[in-house]
Amino acid sequence: MTDSSSPKARKPKGACRMAVKHLGPITEADVTFGDLTVIVGPQATGKSIFLQTLKLVIDRDHIHETFSRHSISFNGQPSAFLDGYFGRGMAGAWGAKSQLHWNGRPLPLPELTKQTRGRLRYERLFYIPAQRVMSLPGGVSQNFGQFNYGDPYTLRAFSDAIHGLIQNEFGAKGELFPASNRLNETLRKPIADHLFGGNHLVVDDTEFTKRLGLAVPGQKKPLGFLSWSAGQREFTPMLMGLYWLCTVATTRRKSGSTAKETIDWVVIEEPEMGLHPRAIAAVLLLVLELLRRGYKVVLSSHSPVVLEMVWALQEFKKNRGDEADLRKMFELPGTHDAKKLGRIALTKDYRVYFFERNGAVRDISGLNPGAEDAAESEWGGLVGFSSRANEAIGAAVNRAEARPRRRRKPKEEASAEEAA
């Protein structure tokens, strides 16, 4: 039973809430978003379709305008739009029993296939998809039109954004990382140490096409994209998106015509893909930087490292921890930027939801290892195997200790028996 001090017992001030029923593999999900919301669960439980629906709810008109700008028309056919947005064959995810509510208001998914006459046509949610490596085939960025109908909109839009950055804003300067004007040292050093290993991320245009390369000290030519580690290939497009969100003097990135028209939400699918735990920690510092800037962040994850950070932050808050505790966890120096990051992280609201097959999505924000609900105590199954391994080893040790031990005969006695 959870006490009143548990994070799941409090609703964040001004929180947004999305509830769905019978949407694709999701039986029922009712999610109240915190400053950082993490969703976990096995594959094919509806995490991606839930997050893509969140994007559609928030950026409906911007999405319609993007399709129109690229001369894509669905001729008023809801199923065609849903296939074009979620991906080919996904229109069937919405059926006769399906429901969608936003902040308590019913909002049928077919309604979102129609553009409104409102003015909210700037982008408010920046989405970094799980398939992000596809945005840089061979290290060359791809624009929206280079994908096919039926490729998910979130991939196409993200790839288009990265293409514009590399070809224009970032590409003009050649070196992308480490660049002192992009991220402060608190964020930059862990990336350099645990992701690029002292190499520099550059834009290589020696073959008359701007492509990403890794400049290795002592080598004349940068390493081609396919020569990088899998983790570097997965991380780099995500880094480009986070650069764009964080390289601004103001708190949030302007995405419309006025200073008030900004990106407010960031969704990152599986930020840990291909990464060592130390590298995941470096990525999580970037997530905390997004929170410091006031973005509302939603992650999907299969990594216990992500939930270890959330659990630790909640424990620090409950036990009146301070920024020094966070710095110790991340091995950060006592710089002004690191202290500020730690202080603000301890003021945020953190929530975790478990998506499972054939059941309602559960709020496991407490992450209590002693909870009766296995979904919470095992953190949505992310530490279940470790727990079972420990139990199995404990049982084996107990059996071994319970076995009667054979008395070892003295060496002289054994020798006499052999001689006889």
Structure description:
The protein is of the alpha/beta class and 420 residues long. It has a single domain (13-367), classed as Rossmann fold (3-Layer(aba) Sandwich), CATH 3.40.50. Helix content is 38%, strand content 15%. The chain is built from 13 helices and 13 strands. The protein has a 6-stranded mixed sheet, with helices on both faces. It has a 4-stranded antiparallel sheet with strand order 2-1-4-5, with helices on one face. Strands 7-8-9 form a 3-stranded antiparallel sheet, with no helix packed on it. A hairpin with a 2-residue loop joins β1 (17-23) and β2 (26-32). α5 (185-196) runs antiparallel to α7 (277-292), α7 packs across α10 (336-345) and α9 (323-330) packs across α10 (336-345). The radius of gyration is 25 Å and the shape is globular. The termini are far apart.
Q: Which CATH first-tier class would you pick?
A: Alpha Beta
Strand count, sense and closure of the main sheet?
6 strands, mixed
Distance between the termini: 70 Å
Overall shape: it is: globular
Q: Give the helix/strand class.
A: alpha/beta
Strand content: 15-25%
Q: Specify the number of helices.
A: 13
Give the strand line-up of the largest sheet.
6-10-11-3-12-13
Mean pLDDT: 90
Q: Could you list the spans in which at least 5 consecutive residues all have pLDDT below 50?
A: 1-10
Computed over alpha carbons, the radius of gyration is 25 Å
Listing every helix as H and every strand as E from the N terminus to the C terminus, the arrangement reads EEEHHHEEEHEHEEHEHEHHHEEHHH
Any idea what the CATH architecture is?
3-Layer(aba) Sandwich
Helix content: 25-40%
Domain module count: 1
> Which topology does CATH recognise?
Rossmann fold
User: How many strands appear in the DSSP assignment?
Assistant: 13
